[in-house]
UniProtKB/TrEMBL annotation:
Name by which UniProt lists this protein: Lytic transglycosylase domain-containing protein
UniProt key word Signal: yes
InterPro entries from the UniProt entry: Lysozyme-like_dom_sf, Transglycosylase_SLT_dom_1
Signal peptide: 1-35
Organism name: Kitasatospora xanthocidica
Keyword field: Signal
Amino acid sequence: MPAFKLRMRTSAAILAGAAGLTALGAGVLPATANAATASPQAIAAQIVPANQLASFSQIVAHESSWNVSATNASSGAYGLAQALPGSKMASAGSDWKTNPATQIKWALDYMNTRYGSPNAAWNFWQANHWY
């Protein structure tokens, strides 16, 4: 299957899964989605605004394939959003190396601060293949 079709299916699956989750409160996962066992995608669906989730998901899929410990061998960029240096994510929590929620919170703040939103960050990524 071509990579772009796989990405489209993956994005559709993320959004379908996200649509099935209901928030019990800001940043709280549903009882059926234990924070310790929830996928990074499910956690993102609880943190990222719904109208920004598809763009956020595209960036993370391209940058790290949703691998919390993804490391770029050339630059040392780390995590879901490929922060450089990875230690920047400590501003979102001391557990930045292993906690997808911490990485997602940092990435969302980064995208909002630098680009205005994940949608704007994704537009930039598509034009430049980095963000």
